[in-house]
Write a structure and sequence with these properties.
- Helices cover 29% and strands 0% of the residues.
- It has 126 residues and is mainly alpha-helical.
- The protein is globular and about 40 Å long.
- The two termini are 18 Å apart.
Length: 126
């Protein structure tokens, strides 16, 4: 089963940079992502990916000052109980997050929509 899932998702690796922006035909991620990139520039070390991975309840402080954020220096940790911003809708995922209505926009993030659409197309065309 693990091999099947690996084969199914492997096609995303070449184009993963396309999924990090809401309008990939207008703007790509900066700095660009690619298979030849060093892994040290990925995840929380990449400015746009860090925004997507940031726990949504800490996103506003991260956006105010991303280079000196509590996420970057470890005062805020990204744990499984804090949903990442990319799960929420918005051109900046999670920008309209409301802690009282935390379910509003949940699982409507453009990353999820792009990946699910791409995966569905890949499966249909295979």
């Amino acid at each position: 089963m693990q091999r099947v899932w690996s084969d199914h998702a492997s096609h995303l690796k070449k184009v993963i940079g396309m999924y990090t922006t809401p309008y990939p035909d207008k703007k790509s991620s900066e700095p660009p992502l690619g298979s030849n990139e060093s892994h040290s520039r990925m995840g929380f070390n990449h400015p746009e990916l860090a925004c997507l991975l940031c726990p949504v309840k800490h996103l506003s402080s991260f956006l105010d000052n991303p280079t000196e954020s509590q996420l970057q220096d470890g005062r805020v940790t990204a744990v499984s109980t804090n949903w990442p911003a990319f799960l929420y809708c918005g051109d900046i995922p999670g920008e309209d997050f409301n802690p009282v209505r935390f379910d509003k926009g949940f699982l409507h993030g453009f990353v999820l929509i792009w990946v699910s659409f791409s995966s569905a197309c890949y499966v249909c065309l295979k």
